[in-house]
Fold:
Amino acid sequence: MLLPVLALTGRADAEPEGQVGIRLVEAPEDRSDDPRARAYIVDHVKPGTVIHRRFAVNNTSAKPQTLWLYAAGAEIRKRKFTFLPDQTANELSSWITFDRPAVTLPPGGERVLKATIRVPRTAWKGERYAVMWGEARAPATKEHNVQVHNRVGIRVYLDVGSGGEPPTDFRVDKMWAGRDQAGKPRLAAQVTNIGLRAVDMSGELRLSEGPGGTSAGPFKVTTGVTMAPRDVGQVEVLLDPSLPMGPWKADLTLTSGRTTRTASGTVTFPAALDTTAAVKLSSTALPPLTALFITTGALAVAGGGYLIWRRARRTP
Structure:
C-alpha cells in the first residue's frame, strides 16, 4: 500500500494526513503468501496476457475529494524505486487502463475500482515498472497561486516472458558497525541482488549475548532500498545512543517478498564518532541459486575426477 504523498516531494512512504489513500484489495492466488503482492502488483505473465486487479481508494478528509486515475512510468535508479515526472508514460504504463477515469468520494468514503493490464503479444522479455496513481487536485486561488496535487499510488512490478517466473534472490555480502556524528550506533550491510527480479529490502536486527548476557531488539531495517538484478546496495539499522558498545551477537534478517536471507556475526560498536568497523560474519544463509551452482560445480568436478581416474585405470 502506498500512502498519501505530495507529488512535489516524490515520496512513497509518508503517513496519512487526513486526505486520500489507496490499497490493493486482491492478489493472485499463487502469491497469497507474498507480502509484496498484497501491497503492490507483482506478477509474471506471458505475452498477450490480460490481468485485472481490484483496488480501493478512500477519502479521510472532511470534504469531498475527486481522484483522477492514471498510470505513469517508473524505474529503479540508484537503488530507489523512482517515479518518472508527473504523468510521464513508459511502455508498462501504456498497457494499464481503469474502469473509470475519475471518482468523487464523500468525506470518509471509499470506492473499489478495477485496473486492467493488457500485455501485447509482441511484448519483449523482461521486468517493467510503473505506478497506478490517484490524484486529488487543489486548484490555484487568490491566496495560493500554485496548484497543489496530492496523489497516492500503487507500484507495479510486471515481468513478461514465456516459461516459469525468473527467480528472486539476494545475498548478504558483508556487515560493518559504525557510529554517526550524532553518536548513534548503526549496523550496515552490503547486499547483492543475484536474482532476476527487483527486490525491496526490509528486515530486522536482533542483538544477543551482550554485556552481562543482555539482549536487544528487534530493530527495524530502514526501508526504501530497491535493487534491480545485479545491483549492489546497502541497508542499515539505526540504534539508540545508549546501547552498550558490546560485544554483541548480531543476527540480521532481510526479506523481499517470499525471499528471506540471514547473516550473523559478532559486533562491537566503535566509541569514536563517524567511524566504522568490519563485522566478521560467522554464518550466512546460502541462497538456493548459489547452493545449486556450488552443488552443480562440485558434481562436475567430482564427475571429471572420476572419469580421469577411470581412464587412468584403463591406461596400459
Q: What stands out?
A: The CA atoms of residues 213 and 308 lie 54 Å apart. Residues 170-284 form a domain with the Immunoglobulin-like fold (CATH 2.60.40.10). Confidence is low (pLDDT under 50) at residues 1-17, 288-316.
